[in-house]
Amino acid sequence: MEEMKNTKKLTDDCDAAIKTAQFRFALIAPPVQGLVPDGSDTAYFMRITKDPLTLPDGRCVKYSWKTPQKWHYLYKKGGFDALLPKTRSDKGIPRSREWLEESFLNRVTRKVRKDATVPIDCVSYDVPMQFISQKVEIRYLPEDMDSAFILYEGEHFPIRATDKNENCRTKRENNPPVDYTEIGGGN
To answer: b or e along 56-94 (b: 16 or more beta carbons within 10 Å of the residue's beta carbon)?
Structure first.
């Protein structure tokens, strides 16, 4: 009984795939046969995709004009079989454990202040100084801000909550005063 259900499903899937390929061929048939009434293939593809199209399963879909153009190209390279819908090879498989975990992180974009900090939910966080005055994407779990990081060019840069006591004791170099008389600003 189970085998019959699987066979029926497989047959139905094949029938649906063939109907989809036939639908695609019907759309690209004029350019394939060199009978384009619009003057060019592109003009034809633009005209037929101006309105939504009804698929064999009854769904209405709005295509870009480039989609039937791609089908035309595929047909020229591989014939009717190239118009059969393909299933994604990675369907249902996460790219990696790290990718999957990062998919659930919150993401915020912030501009880094001149003191190399960013605010998140009214709390200030220290970030690497190389990001001063830049917009950065910060990823984090709200309940675990210790693992928060900046994602920049595929690399993770950790951030940490600003320790205000440590920050107030930090020795800063004072810039030398500017003498405006030397640059022509004085009387």
So the answer is: eeeeeeeeebebbbebbebbeeeeeeebeeeeeeeeeee
